[in-house]
Predict the structure.
Amino acid sequence: MRRGLFLGGQLVIYSLLIVANESHLGALPGLFVDQDGIDGCNHDHGPAPSFSAPENGSTVKGHHGAPAQLHCTVQELHHRAVSWMKKTEDDLQLLTVGESSHTADPRISPDFTYPHLWQLKFNPAMINDSGTYLCHISTDPPLIRHIRLEISVPEPIVEIVDSLTDAALSSDRVLYYRIGSSLELRCRVKRYWIKPTRFHWLKSGNPVSDELWRGGISIYTEITKPGQLENKLSIANATINDGGNYTCSLDSFSVSIVVHFLKEEKQAASQHASNGGHSSVMENAFHQGMACHLILSFLLQVGISHRH
């Protein structure tokens, strides 16, 4: 009961601030001024202000890190002001009045689209923006719409991608490399809007970063665009011991792939061909095959010419 009286009192105070006139309180920066009472006349003629949307108690859903907006459609506003407030457990926070912002948070701003649409925008929205918001019209008594904003963190997409085609590799895929070549693995994460606490590579369950002392290993993490991260692992002059199960781990999410290193280049090329391998190994096998074909053709021509 006390909490209800307290919030009701705050609404009255905010309404008084919004309709304060210059003759009594002076101009309040950024606030709309209600001119009723300045000349002793009532200027409320015609239809009273009203909401045409949304329904009271409606819910708007959004994702952490992505833009979100609440909207109020107001008819017959005339000289009245539309304000946005956030309701907390025992408080009301004034966010906007008209087209002016009254919060220090630069992510939150008002937006008006003529003639009736008033919006509260979040760019980007964050998980702690979830709550109940009030769209308020400075009538007496004030008109209010309650709107619930629910911001969730979507489950990210974690995938290992082919370095050449940029396509995601299936988890049952096996990559074959020849000993002495360079290994490059790319882990791409989509729809991840929060700063990860852990984003690293594991080899057979052990952090690859523990092997940095040996040299030739680099791990590079970057934000490729909002909500998307990449972690690149490169191993130069790889040995047979670099083969194994590689896992890209992002907090509680992970994806794995198996890498094998083969001694014979022909064997590696054959395995790459059957697994859609990298073009560098395939090209080497192709060139070797072409060379053998040319040599055999030359010897055949020499044999024919000697017969004649």
